[in-house]
Automatic annotation (TrEMBL):
It comes from Hymenochirus boettgeri (Congo dwarf clawed frog). This is LDLRAD1-like C-terminal domain-containing protein. PANTHER family: LOW-DENSITY LIPOPROTEIN RECEPTOR-RELATED. Coiled coil: none annotated. The keyword Transmembrane helix applies. InterPro entries: LDL_receptor-like_sf, LDLR, LDLR_class-A_CS, LDLRAD1_C, LDrepeatLR_classA_rpt. GO terms for biological process: vesicle-mediated transport.
Amino acid sequence: MCVTSNFTGFLCNDRITCLLPSQVCNSVSDCGNGEDEVSSLCSNLPNNLPGYLIFRCGNPRIWIYSNLKCNMINNCGDCSDESQSYASCPACGSQWWPCSPVLFQYCNCIPRSLCQNGVQDCSDWSDEYVCTK
């Protein structure tokens, strides 16, 4: 266990290299000796992975790597990975507009780049009439 980019990551055997959770069992050997791709970890996903590397979605049969939680993208499909109550996500950052998006891709916020783009991205149209880039 190690910390990389504010996430608990996978520590390679060299005791220096710290991988993001999504770099483990991704068919790319990111550790020098390939310990991030060994069958003892990767043969029965996610069950063989340490719990700190995964996040179980609202539907417990669906999981994502923990570094994909709270990334403003609906990775779980039910927005449980973007929920402040379920996933302990922070509020929208300055580059995001808080609203109920109409797009399946987003959950609680849309990128400000979508503001005033002539397309309804928020259910209340606030992205077109209130939000500024």
